Amino acid sequence: NSKVKVAYGCDNCDSEFSQWWGRCPKCGVGSVSEREHDMLKVNPKRGAEVSEAAVRTWLRQKPGSVIPKTLADVNMGREHSGLFGMEVSRVLGGGIVPGSLVLVGGDPGVGKSTLLLQISANVAEGSDSGEPVVYVSGEESIEQIANRADRMHITTDNLYLYSSTDIEDIFEKIQPLKPKALIIDSIQTVYLREVTGSAGNVSQVRECTSALLRFAKDTNIPVFLIGHVTKSGDIAGPRLLEHIVDVVLYMEGERYSSFRLLRSVKNRFGSTDELGVLEMSGMGLQAVANPSEMFLTDHNTESDILAGLAIGVMVEGSRAFVIEVQALCVASKSSGRHINGVHVSRADLIIAVLVKQAGLKLQDNTIFLNVVSGISLSEPAGDLAVAAAISSSFLECPLPNDITFIGEIGLGGELRMVPRMDKRVMAVAQLGYKRCVVPKSAEKLMKTLDIEMTILGCKNLKDMIYTVF
Ligand code: TYD
Ligand code: MG
């Protein structure tokens, strides 16, 4: 076949060459062997050596290989509902669904490998039939993973570690083990020999994921994929894959905080409103029993609460973030503004409205405004939290620590509805807050939500000040 181009690739660093080398001239470690570059072209020679029937079947969908299943079948099959004391299982929609493909995304270093290693151990320990779990890493050596497992006191001998980046090789090696679950760390490091380009490029990532999806569906083995989020925020790998996989989880965490949030942004088997809260310790991740403490640790008794702190919620894409706004008003001759994390023009508007419509004499104050942990509040939905923080500092009256604020402020001081009200209220409810101030127009709707939350509808800023102070 004239379309088949022959190239040579290094089995260590994946560099490609137009000629054969004894040792890879790039990394000096791997050996260079012949590689084929025609898309999804079966090479009969190689097919023979890797047992064609066993491996090739996963690479393309066979007609009739996936049988339709009833919803009940799928739900019945859910297993391991006790992962991390429910924290992780809940986000997954109640447990691990056999044959599901789950993508776990997050910034490098946030703890994805740690989480998946612990999930593997959990599943391996809970496997009564003795089926193992296979953790495949293309990023770390087996020794590195074993070291980490040791540090986390993982002792199960039902967990197999394998270091490889070749999808076909992975399928071939794990098939005889008939694992209970397969983990691939990460999707950016694996490749299919038939697909052009090195691991991590768009077509490799997409084709590998498709092959893994077919593998999961055909074998009924759940597969977890780890995907790195790139710096630009545009998730080169994971974003591209969201429509292929069944479940997409994102792991988030502040750089200097030990808390990690696990959020589901897509779930074919459950709700995406679930949030898992975990804490990174020296021995891996632990479920946080009472997530509300996470934001309230420093001021959890009435006497500790400082004036000038208010809680709001912002939504970015499909995700809601609970934020803490801090304000400090200091009486002075000049009326300076030192604003961090809020648009200056927005802050000016809120201050002007507080002066004019709520009667606060802020004009003789220097005002410091800050959004905790460097998040930038870019939505009008945060207006009310900003106004509440400023009012609290100005009035020298702390806000109760169970109250949150959602709403936009108009020039007349009126509170306005914002998009995704329900999502925001759910987000604060999940974190344990008990009261939420919302625009009057949203009150009725919010009261129909099935959550434990006192909804305080307010018409305008004055109304809000009378209600909370
Ligand atoms: P890792 O799971 O390697 O992150 P990712 O796979 O998302 O890139 O974990 C990264 C950090 O977690 C690492 O910097 C060290 C820290 N860590 C702990 O604090 N405790 C632990 O028990 C482990 C295993 C890691
Ligand atoms: Mg990792």
Summarize this, please?
With 469 residues, the protein is α/β, with parallel strands linked by helices.
Keywords:
Rossmann fold, 469 residues, alpha/beta, hydrolase, single chain, nucleotide-binding, 9-stranded mixed beta sheet, ATP binding, 21 strands, damaged DNA binding, Ribosomal Protein S5, domain 2, elongated, 29% helix, binds magnesium ion, 7-stranded mixed beta sheet, binds thymidine-5'-diphosphate
Task: Describe what this molecule looks like in 3D.
- The protein is α/β, with parallel strands linked by helices.
- It has three domains: 1-38; 48-287, 3-Layer(aba) Sandwich (Rossmann fold); 295-468, Ribosomal Protein S5, domain 2 (2-Layer Sandwich).
- 29% of the residues lie in helices and 24% in strands.
- It has 15 helices and 21 strands.
- It has helices at 44-49, 52-56, 71-76, 87-92, 112-125, 142-151, 167-174, 202-219, 238-241, 293-296, 344-358, 383-394, 421-430, 440-447, 461-468, and strands at 6-10, 16-17, 32-36, 101-106, 133-137, 159-163, 181-185, 223-228, 247-252, 259-267, 275-281, 284-287, 309-316, 319-331, 337-340, 365-371, 403-405, 408-409, 415-416, 435-439, 454-458.
- Strands 6-5-7-8-4-9-10-11-12 form a nine-stranded mixed beta sheet. The protein has a seven-stranded mixed beta sheet with strand order 15-16-14-13-17-20-21, with helices on both faces.
- A hairpin with a 5-residue loop joins strand 1 and strand 2.
- The longest helix is centred in the middle third of the chain and has 18 residues, at 202-219.
- The protein is elongated and about 80 Å long.
- The termini are far apart.
- The model is unreliable at 37-55 (pLDDT under 50).
